[in-house]
Amino acid sequence: MAEPEVTVEPRRRSVQCASPKGLHRIAYVEWGDPRNRDVLLCVHGLTRTGRDFDQLAHALSGQWRVVCPDLAGRGDSDRLADPALYAIPQYVSDMVTLIARLDVESVHWIGTSLGGLIGMALAALPESPIERLALNDVGPVLAGASLDRIGSYVGKWPALPDIEAAEQYVRSISASFGPHTDAEWRFLTEHVVRRNADGSLRMHYDPAIAVALNAELPHKDAELWSFYDAIRCPTLVLRGEHSDMLARDIAAKMATRGPRAKVVEIPGVGHAPTLLHDDQIRIVRDFLLAGG
């Protein structure tokens, strides 16, 4: 049997989704053979985009058709008419529509932070299309202090006159990503900024995503064990050693209840591992391949 085609550059696609306030377009990039029925869906964190997964997608696109969407209000996707809709139910609905567009019955899923919460909610549903689930530094208890930290900067970026200023801003709010090269920090910046008419830059996302996030201040710990305990598919949990979002004792409990996840801690990293490095990509690949 011929090996699946490896796509060096991703294909840009979009799909129309519905909300209670109308229609919106979800953009995504797709790597690998478009005929491949083995699909890996990669879903980013709160203020990031699907392009975060470029290195992982390129590495895995010989085995899987890798699909990386921009959630509503981020990247190249449309903004939502009502800020209150920037929440898990709408994101789940959009991803179900995307999976239908891909014309497959099941997918593997890796989600970073918010992307993991969406995956957890979808995997908890009866007849879920998720066959294997990788949760990147997120679990069924969200630390209130971490939510406060994230809420303190979402939608409040400073003036960004050039890419150098934008990179310094990204480095400052994303220091918990851990050590990265200058080239990696530039990569982590380039896909999360957009150019204004005057040549200055802005962050790519709708500032209104902060509305739902900061509806309750200060944040309390949010417990979602009922979702996690309903998951039936094999599950991997990646935890940054210094994470302020996923506590070590919570990760340990995730290994003993619900889907009894395999837990791997990434040294020297906080919230969240970027999956840019070979050792992190290898952990994901080994977990996905364990399912045959």
Largest sheet: 8 strands, mixed
Rg, alpha carbons: 18 Å
Mean pLDDT: 95
Note the run of SSEs as H and E. Answer: EEEHEHEHEEHHHEEHEHEHEH
Percent of residues in beta strands: 15-25%
Strand order of the largest sheet: 1-2-4-3-5-6-11-12
Number of strands: 12
Distance between the termini: 16 Å
**Helix count, DSSP H or I runs of 4 or more residues:** 10
What class would the helix/strand composition place it in?
A: alpha/beta
Helix content: 25-40%
Shape: globular
Which runs of at least 5 residues are low in confidence (pLDDT < 50)? Answer: 1-7
Question: What do these coordinates show?
Answer:
The chain is an alpha/beta fold. It is built from ten helices and twelve strands. It has helices at residues 54-60, 88-102, 114-123, 144-151, 163-173, 182-190, 209-213, 225-230, 248-254, 278-289; strands at 11-19, 22-31, 39-43, 65-69, 107-112, 130-136, 141-142, 193-195, 201-203, 222-223, 235-240, 262-266. It has an eight-stranded mixed sheet with strand order 1-2-4-3-5-6-11-12, with helices on both faces. Strand 11 (235-240), helix 9 and strand 12 (262-266) form a beta-alpha-beta unit. Helix 2 crosses helix 3 and helix 5 crosses helix 6. The longest helix has 15 residues, at 88-102. The radius of gyration is 18 Å and the shape is globular.
